[in-house]
Design goal:
214 residues, mainly alpha, 77% helix, Pmp4, PXMP4 protein
Length: 214
């Protein structure tokens, strides 16, 4: 019986591998693998981030913290999987309908996927969109220089960009804190507000805040 089970498993694996080699199924299989990769990558990215941020900055029981980490990881993984699935599916569909791939296909497919998957305004989606926005601004700036729309800077503009970004974010934190994303507020509160408060050596050097009621 065990030997027969192994034979059946080998036959199934051979059949699956044969299907994976078929060119006519390639577009559909790429969509499915995109879903798989989106789910795995989302989990890999979110799990360690959620673990660190939750343990460092969130209060509550260990059970509540673990639940929060699991929920954040699941949401990020699910959304990225759905987006990749939607994007690659629409790309394949457009290419099939028009007989070729053109640049607009990518923009259109991603717009639809972004609307459907990341359109809900929640902490996870907000964080992902802000991450992408910063990369887009850098990418468009480099593209504008490459295409000649703006001249090549004579000096590296990065120091000026760093100064303006830090100046702006600290100004927002000090005077318009509610406009910043909650996790950024938590990080900056720890760095800039909590460092103004201490009672003795314990919460000056060892701990951030005293846990007793003294």
């Amino acid at each position: 019986m065990a030997g027969g089970g192994r034979d059946v498993l080998r036959a199934l694996l051979r059949a699956a591998n044969a299907i994976l080699q078929q060119r006519r199924y390639r577009a559909a299989l790429a969509v499915l693998k995109g879903f798989r990769n989106g789910a795995v990558y989302g989990a890999k990215i979110r799990a360690p981030h959620a673990l660190v941020m939750t343990l460092l900055f969130k209060s509550g029981s260990l059970r509540e913290k673990l639940k929060s980490i699991a929920q954040a990881t699941y949401t990020h993984s699910r959304n990225l999987a759905y987006f990749v699935f939607t994007y690659k599916g629409l790309m394949a569909l457009q290419s099939q309908l028009q007989g070729k791939k053109i640049p607009f296909h990518s923009f259109f497919a991603a717009c639809i996927g972004g609307w459907l998957v990341f359109g809900e305004n929640n902490p996870i989606n907000s964080q992902i969109i802000m991450y992408l926005l910063s990369r887009i601004l850098f990418g468009l700036s480099r593209l504008a220089v490459e295409k000649g729309y703006i001249p090549q800077p004579k000096q590296d503009p990065f120091p000026l960009v760093a100064a303006l970004i830090w100046g702006t974010v600290l100004w927002l934190f000090e005077y318009h804190r509610q406009t910043l994303q909650p996790s950024l507020q938590s990080s900056m509160t720890y760095l800039y507000d909590d460092s103004d408060v201490w009672h003795d050596i314990s919460d000056f050097l060892i701990y951030n805040k005293r846990t007793d009621s003294k």
